[in-house]
Amino acid sequence: MIRTALTRRFDLGTPVVGAPMAGVSGGALAAAVSGAGGLGMIGVAGNHSAEFVAEQCAIPEGLPFGVGLMAWVLDDRPDLLEATIAARPALVSVSFGDPGPYVGPLRDAGIAVATQVNTADDVHRAVAAGVDVIVAQGSEAGGHTGHRATLPLLQEVLTLTDLPVVAAGGIATGRGMAAALAAGAAGVWIGTPLLACPEGLNSPAARARVQAAHGEETVLTRAFDVAQRLAWPSRWPGRALVNEFSREWHGREDELAHDDAASRRVVEARKSDDLEQAPLYAGESVGLVTTERSATDVVGDLTAAAEQALRRVAELLD
Ligand SMILES: Cc1cc2nc3c(=O)[nH]c(=O)nc-3n(C[C@H](O)[C@H](O)[C@H](O)COP(=O)(O)O)c2cc1C
Fold this sequence. Notes:
This protein is of the alpha/beta class. The chain is built from 15 helices and 11 strands.
């Protein structure tokens, strides 16, 4: 069994967090991750309602779960924070913006707070805000992320804080998980490996597309946010699978901001699940996701393989 500051803090059987992924990780996916001993998180975005939060958080008694919120969304949506607090998760992440204003209310309610960081300055801000857990999110990650790679970012973050640091971005095998733990991470925060799980809120077509995708097929782009006229801060582009829309518009975001026909195409494509025009967020480890499997099996197999890899690492020593 792998024990770290994270497993001790949240009484987990394995130091694996199922990343919050808006549109993919609802209560069923979170429960499947937690059922394997990890900590499943529910992703909440600006297009969600307080009722959605309450519904998704109604997961079986006794299973720990978390909720992932976005700071830039919360600024105008206090109802999402209130609904989250009312659901009493073990952990709430407040990422993509300053977590400062939200740490007090969450901790007063007895809820631990995490935040994803992408730079050294983010770490200083998170520590000053009083968070409990820091997630070093590398640019390999699926979804919105920063520009620094996971391993150098993780190493630097570990020099900047004594708080538990969890590694996110590109971790999809026991080898990868063992590497992050050996580097000093207290756990791993996995999103892309859970994109082909039947418990997800994503469509069967999206799950099939993920299984077919190669690791070279992702792009870090603002094109989808600009097209949808979303107020995503520009410092966090999103890593998605390359498709017809990104081939046409990535790098031409200024022009896209004035093209209403292209904007409508993405908005409509999201409704009709047209994967060549709508964003399908996925990280660089997508090439390792080749079968549809329960999240419980993904987390169980990942943990078993990480234990094996850690034993092999120990054998390197004389
Ligand atoms: C489809 C998708 C949606 C995501 N949505 C969110 C979100 O709502 N909130 C959040 O904090 N992070 C979100 N992320 C980022 C993840 O929390 C996490 O950092 C990332 O998936 C880890 O890297 P990996 O994809 O390489 O495993 C999302 C990622 C993906 C792939």
